[in-house]
Design goal:
Elements lengths: L21 H15 L1 E3 H8 L3 H13 L3 E4 L2 E4 L10
Antiparallel strand pairs: 1-3, 2-3
Helix pairs in contact: 1-3, 2-3
Length: 87
């Protein structure tokens, strides 16, 4: 993933320079889930410059795979999701 280089003129939430594949976004979400225990749609939106609908689809895919459980505004780590983590 190639994010915009940040400087004084570039805000910290600057969007990626090119589209990020869904698999990459979902691996990022899994890393956040395994680190913190939850990930939000808003975080996915601002990190990747995607719409709310796209963020929800990414999270819904993780829920469908049994890797996460849906919560209001995002997802939390499911009980057995670490067994399915992609490296």
């Amino acid at each position: 993933m190639s994010l915009v280089k940040h400087d004084a003129a570039s805000p910290a939430w600057a969007m990626p320079t090119s589209p990020v594949l869904p698999a990459v976004r979902r691996r990022y979400a899994l890393r956040v889930l395994n680190t913190r225990g939850y990930v939000t749609c808003r975080e996915m939106q601002t990190t990747f410059g995607i719409s709310e609908a796209t963020a929800r689809r990414d999270i819904d895919a993780l829920v469908s795979d049994g890797r996460a459980s849906r919560i209001h505004g995002g997802a939390m780590l499911s009980d057995h999701s670490q067994l399915h983590q992609d490296n």
